[in-house]
Amino acid sequence: MTTQQESPVSAVISIQVENESGALARVIGLFSGRGYNIESLTVAPVDETRHQSRINVVTTAVPRVLEQIRAQVERLVPVYRVAVMTRQDPHVAREMALVKVIASGERRADALRIAQAFRAHPVDASATSFVFELTGATDKLDAFIDLMRPLGLAEVSRTGVAAIARGAAIL
Amino acid sequence: MNAASHQTDLKPHTTGTDSSVVLTGAEVLLRVLAEQGVEVIFGYPGGAVLPIYDAIFRQNAIRHVLVRHEQAAVHAAEAYARSTGKVGVVLVTSGPGATNTVTGLLDAMLDSVPVVCFSGQVGVPLIGTDAFQEADTTGITRPATKYNYLIRRPEDVASCVHEAFHIARSGRPGPVLVDLPKNLMVGPAPYSAPPRTPHPSYQPQTEPGRDVIARAVTAMKQGRRPLFYIGGGIINAGPEASAALRRLVEKTGFPCTSTLMGLGAMPAGDRRFLGMLGMHGTYEANMATHGCDVLIALGSRFDDRVTGRLDAFSPGSFKIHADIDPSQINKIVPVNVGIVGDARRVIEMMLEEWDCTPANPGQPIDLASWWHQINEWRAVNSLGFTQDMAPEAIIRPQYAIRRLHELATATGRDTYVSTEVGQHQMWAAQHFGFDRPNRWLTSGGLGTMGYGLPAAVGAQIAHPDALVIDIAGEASTLMNIQELSTIAQYRLPVKVFILNNQYMGMVRQWQQLLHESRYSESYSAALPDFVRLAESFHGRGLRATCMGELDGVIEEMLAHPGPVVADICVAQEENCYPMIPSGAPHNQMLLGPDQDDEISAEGRMLV
Ligand SMILES: Cc1ncc(C[n+]2csc(CCOP(=O)(O)OP(=O)(O)O)c2C)c(N)n1
Ligand SMILES: [Mg+2]
User: Fold this and answer.
1) At the top level of CATH, which class does the domain A92-163 belong to?
2) Among A33, A38, B363, B549, fewest CB within 10 Å belongs to which?
3) Residue A83, Cβ density class (10 Å: 0-12 exposed, 13-18 middle, ≥19 buried)
4) Which residues of A touch B (CB under 8 A)?
5) What is the CATH number of domain B3-189?
6) Domains A9-88 and A92-163 in one fold
7) Which residues of B touch A67 (CB under 8 A)?
8) pLDDT tens per residue across span B324-357
9) Is the overall model pTM greater than 0.90, yes or no?
């Protein structure tokens, strides 16, 4: 146990759980009950034959608390495995956003141009609006949304982060 | 479901599944219980569990004990479990029956007690409709249980119930709740044997790693001022763990202190035992914790009642922590060696390793100066008090417990002590010497007033011939006083020993020390006459008002073959010492009333 770096770091906690009713409630109840924050949350079945789902929670905490979160989540009965991925652990973390922009004239053209630069795809368009689909790291999504704000940003729906380790390592 | 199934013999069939007989869900439940070795259920009936009660009525293998409140059912089951090492079983109805168990379940959770609680639920089609006595029981109890189930399909009844027992008793034990919709209990359900394959996701580690044990023992051998700090995990690991601990303490020659939950693992009178540590621990235990250079925590969890001010807890010691629950290691106090495993195995492997690891090259461990220091601390006699022995003198609560211990020991009977929560609980821990594990039943983690009386019920049901005493406070006793009726019904010879100070003494003490003696709502006004109360519940009531009456009352209580409530009128404003005030380190204990003004401002903020 090192106490040197006690500043909070951002981490994705990836949790492989039994796909049962209540498993998600157990995990998020643990977070709220013990005062850990949840910045984003994703959950979906990932292995139909073995009835397993994957939950990804983004949180920020000092390393010692991250270790405690891992241990607390790991001891939940329906949890198979837990990985804590911080900046130091090679991993890929992505989320998807659907961004609605209501604009006309020059602002409409600007929005399209910026979307192209970000590789955001217009998945719906009307005379006055666009819905862009954008996938990427959280900060890329944040940047795109910030740029859309003065151009008529109307609504955002984000998935939260899904993460996986790089290389051959598996959870 | 057919009428013929009601005639089914519920005794477990020895030959696995018998597909020719159609059982109802309730019958399957009882069969699984019998197979799990259940002998007694503590429960209370109601609409949603009528089919289960009907199945209970038609069998003889399992006994049902009718409590008078569902919370009491859980505490009784906890004490049954703690005093036997078996799983305690509870059965309650839906809605209010289930919500009444929540305090008990959380109590079992915090003290790691294996309990399986079955709650009735409205029929599956009615779930989510706000039906009569419907509650989201699994939602409500999720943070109060190790695990819980809402069974929705008949084919899950047997497998979930088997699994519930496995989860409750394995790893770090705890409460498991199984919510049983009524229609599943009435309709047919297939029986299945306990699964042979391990649980897919839940596989607690019980066997410690050799390497960490070796590192721990190497450090232990280098210690000049070592100390064992043991906890309830030793009790949970079974009597063999306590026996192994005694060998380890003897072999190493190290001093040993214990948490509230670990009392009895070491004999109270052992020369190497320093008594309890923590807020109301002994001076020698706390000073040794503060001053040791190797601290070996076994089945304990650095609770705040133990550590006091964290940044000053055992400063400078090399810390070894063994626990069956990996999440306890480094949770509160960063340690140098963390060991995950069952306490018994950890200790046994430490014993083996001790013989293999050479002592420090050249110099055998010399603990003489450490023991010399400890004996100086011991000489302070921090549990000392003076009792005026005149017949008309006021009884001091500590003396009453010491006398109770002496006279109970003199009976030669196997004795189980439960407590309520408050000063009397701490005095019981300090002054009633426990020499064997599983004899001390107290609510540690949750500190639940009202635990002791139902706990005494559970212990007496488990040990009908033993002496079972609830050392109680007058306020706590009233929290589950209805259990006197259970005690009467089953003719349980439980002794309720009330240290009646007419105050919520522990609250009053804190108000005196922290709030300038403003005794806000802590006076026990309008108390019942406990003697006549006992009589109205068909028991014997006794009272001692002064020293001259104490021995006589205790002797009569111990000699009486039936239930007794002894109202011991004790000094009203006695405080529990020694005490580490909140926010203070271990080496700044208050030994007595002269030092009361030393509590810091931050200390006042803590509980
Ligand atoms: C259910 C519950 N409510 C409140 C408390 C807070 N509390 C702790 S000790 C205590 C007073 C207990 O009084 P009594 O039973 O007379 O014991 P004494 O301290 O006088 O020995 C109270 C109110 C508690 N522990 N449990
Ligand atoms: Mg009192």
Assistant:
1) alpha beta
2) B363
3) buried
4) 1, 3, 17-18, 21-22, 25-26, 29, 33, 64, 67-68, 71-72, 74-75, 77-80
5) 3.40.50.970
6) yes
7) 330
8) 999 999 999 999 999 999 999 999 999 999 998 7
9) yes
